Amino acid sequence: MADDVGFITMAGARAEGEAPRLGVGMLGYAFMGKAHSNALKKLPYMMYPPAAVPELIAVCGRNEGATAEAAKRYGYKRYYTDWREMLKDPEIHVFDNGGPNDAHAEPTIAAAQAGKHVFCEKPLARTAQEAKTMLDAVCSAGVQHMVAFNYRFVPAIVQAKRLIESGALGRIFHFRAVYLQEWIIDPNFPKIWRLDKSLAGSGALGDLGAHVLDLARFLIGEPRRVMGMTKTFVEERPLPDGSGMGKVDVDDAFVSLIDFENGALGTVEASRFCQGRKNYNSIEINGENGTITFNLERLNELNVFWAHEDPKETRGFHNVLVSESYHPYLTHWWPQGHIVGWEHTFVHEFNHFFEAILGKHPVAPYGADFVDGYRNAVICDAIVESSQTGRAVEIRYEA
Questions:
Q1: Fold of the domain spanning 4-150
Q2: Which of 95, 101, 130, 278 is the least crowded, having the fewest Cβ atoms under 10 Å away?
Q3: Which secondary structure element, helix H or strand E, spans residue 27, and what is its range?
């Protein structure tokens, strides 16, 4: 198991009371590379006093020019074009995998075997079987591990979880969620890696559905069985290099029914073919005592209905601005009403992970560890299987 005492010593001498420094090596520099780097730079002065101070040691990518530019832009000490070489860097204690889905398993497993703590973007893997190899690797290595399901760290989502855990909603009857975007409706949009099963594993299911399926488990509990349908609306697209057309072998959209172990009934849907929807991740939870709704595009708000209120006076949906200092994480940010943004979820997420590395608490249940990532992949695979067979599929996890 990774030795925290030796780990902190390896991070360098520090003054009494000073937060330890954790060297970070990041694979990937595009969308998630920007989001992660932004969070790592903000963390020490916003989540103050920090559990640990991240040091941006190295960034890795295949394109040397773009990787060198990313290192300069984000402030990494150096860059690599081979993740194997980066993992030999003794200054790196945390491996941050923000690469495409096909680059999740091998580098992450190697990092764990090298004694690095590992943080990996979602979905953890392209299949449940692949995810299980990653889970086995981190367990064998004894390193800390986390999957970047960042919506667990939206203050309003954590507030909803607290309400559910308190019993305020009573018995939960329904969970329904949609995650809708529009960005690939144009049939001339090229066949990028997200539309290639060998690279992505799945389409809207793994890209968007993985998020809402994680929130379903986070907020409601384990699913017992699922039924699903997937659909590909545009089956051929131009290849990025202009050499012709390529077959799209992932889903453009999916819908699923979920039967939860606690008796709740769920519906989950995701699509990248919804005109007007930019990043519409919306959930509704119906309990015997009330209802909670949330929309990621208005992520500072919860809409809450309480059945016990007097119908002649206050009974109805209340729009709650989750921005008070007593709400989750908000003591670190701005005065009430000044709101936080999507990018701040990554700050909360990394701070949680660093606290886990330093032994303050485990990653789970509030963060998603590789067990959560593996279970998420099992559910995604079951939805695909149900779509192919037309039958409900029981959810079974390996020990």
A1: Rossmann fold (3.40.50)
A2: 278
A3: strand 21-27
